[in-house]
Amino acid sequence: MFTLDMTDSKNNRIQLYTSVTHRTFNEYLEYPEFEENYDFSPIRHGIKLVASLDMILDETKEQDIEEKLKAEYYLDDESNELVIAKISITEFPAEWKENMEDSWFMWLDTLDGDHCVIGSRADEIEEQDLYDDPFSFGSLFYIERIDVHPKFRGQHTGINLIQYTFKHLIRNANGMVFLIAKPMQSTLSKKKETFKSQARLAKYYEKCGFKRVSKKKADCILMETNLQDLVEYN
Description:
The protein is α+β, with helices and mostly antiparallel strands. The protein has one domain (2-232): 3-Layer(aba) Sandwich (Aminopeptidase). The protein has helices at residues 53-59, 65-72, 94-100, 104-108, 113-127, 157-169, 198-206, 227-232, and strands spanning 2-4, 14-16, 18-25, 43-52, 75-76, 81-93, 139-148, 175-181, 211-212, 221-226. The strands form two sheets. Strands 3, 4, 5, 6, 7, 8, 9 and 10 form an eight-stranded mixed β-sheet that branches. The protein has a two-stranded antiparallel ribbon with strand order 1-2. Strand 7 (139-148), helix 6 (157-169) and strand 8 form a beta-alpha-beta unit. The longest helix is centred in the middle third of the chain and has 15 residues, at 113-127.
């Protein structure tokens, strides 16, 4: 349960009634025809945990509450919602890669360095026959960003939203999910944050089934999980 404490009395907190939104985008209107170039984008998923601003305003009679909310929280003016957390995911269907007749590395390397690392690891998984053929009729998923507003942390909000996303929204039968454990400044808050170690962040993601690819010390830690293990993890 999420609450807002925007009043002078601690006993007068505003309870938030939350919902999850999911938007998917890909620039291809039809099934893509792959040629010898790799200038095409993955499927992009945007997931948000939100609360209706109208419902918040109905719950309180306090003056200037909307201005107070704007000062402390993140309001999406377009949807008229308060954003608690959001996730950005890129998806690469294995069927598309097979039509390209090339490696994961060659596809993901066209995007950025982080995707390049993910692609290289995905090729290792196939070559070494790890996770019992996870890409068969599945996809490679890279969670680019997990952003929880600082005031809503400490309740496993991020990992709960990850599990909800793959269990109820994307719902692929097979695949691998990757993320890179590295602290990032929240886009939902204007306040600068003091970041903790990457190792501590990695332990947080281990709570929903992610495993470190390497035990070596690094500025960022690559983590992975089989899609089914993520959905079923308790």
